[in-house]
Amino acid sequence: MKVFIIGGFLGSGKTTTVLKLIKKMAADNKRVALIVNEVGEVGIDGNALEVAGIPSKEITNGCICCSLIYSLKVTVSELADIYKPDILIMEPTGLSFPSQIRDELLGMNVMMSFAPIITLVDVSRFTAEMNQIPKFVEQQLREADVIGINKTDLAGEEKIQSVETFLKDMNPDAYQIRMSAKENESVDKLYRLMMTEGETVFNPIDAGGAEAKSKVTERTNSIEVSNISACSGLYHAGGKLSVKDAGALLEGIVTAAGMEITKLNPSFVGHIKMTVKVEDTLIKVSQTAGPDDRLIEAEYIPQEKIENGGKYELRFLAAVTNVKKAALEDIVNDSVSVFLSEKNLAFEKQVLESDSKKPILL
């Protein structure tokens, strides 16, 4: 089983990249399994990454490189024993240190090899991230084997070259690749690089061999280092929504929440994400934050049609820098409530385990 770990800070394009990689691997007749990690209690990207025939597990409410490492090891063992995949893809939370994940897995009694660890960078917001959370970004990137300089379609050549030079000084051993995860050509190139056997620049690690060495320069709790506050939740809503109306609703909520967060920290970086499934479409709206450009992106992902009788699950996750968690929770919940009320939708927020100490089944 070959393990792909796709890391990168919040909003760097991990989910889009993983979706494209899964399709590429399936076309090559690879048996693929997937692990998705979310820092919040309620998962968001696990729904977006549902792919027919691909076994997947979602690990929420923490980071698999530190607080949830036991859950990760159990999940890896189960996937290896039950599904026996050729490739296991891990998409950790953007607040993780991917090299710590690999190091924790090296001692497991599971036959694994590791593709080079890739860390994605949103080139258009890299400067803002370095200004807000320099220690976290530096540690995440210094331990990468491959740095994917992503979203090059959103930045000019001068900006891209500046980031490339900075990253080369920070991690001279890492292989750099320019990419836009929305373009198949970029992901095809990344896939070929990751599957290359014996490429010395990557030093692929055999988990059972003598060459298994740590790349971690400083073992830490990644969430503490990130200085990020995060909250997530699940609303049950009832009424009538079309796919178009649902997309507009989520865009309104995410935009309003971002504006209120900006009042507390005009330079915040991070993201706000929401999803809802309507008929045969999963709508995912996200705001990736940088001080100069707060981009709203909407994805409409075809999925198996459901008959929900006018009942919907709205999931949200917000994770931003230098805003107190209580204030962040109030902003998101107020934004959700206002927009659902305006649409005359009956709604109720599901109580989470962290609030009630009772189990929640999602």
Please give the largest β-sheet. Answer: 9 strands, mixed
What is the rounded Rg?
20 Å
Label the CATH architecture of the largest domain: 3-Layer(aba) Sandwich
Contiguous runs where pLDDT drops below 50 for at least 5 residues: 198-213, 354-362
Count of helix runs: 12
* Count of strand segments: 15
Helical residue percent band: 25-40%
Description of the molecule:
This protein has helices spanning 14-27, 45-48, 69-82, 98-106, 126-132, 134-142, 157-170, 184-195, 222-226, 243-264, 325-342, 353-356, and strands at 2-8, 32-37, 56-59, 87-91, 113-114, 118-122, 146-150, 175-178, 205-206, 228-238, 270-278, 281-289, 295-302, 311-321, 346-349. The chain has twelve helices and 15 strands. The two termini are 29 Å apart. Helices cover 36% and strands 25% of the residues. Strand 11 and strand 12 (281-289) form a beta hairpin. It has 362 residues and is of the alpha/beta class. It folds into two domains: 2-199 and 220-224, P-loop containing nucleotide triphosphate hydrolases (Rossmann fold); 227-356, Alpha-Beta Plaits. It is globular.
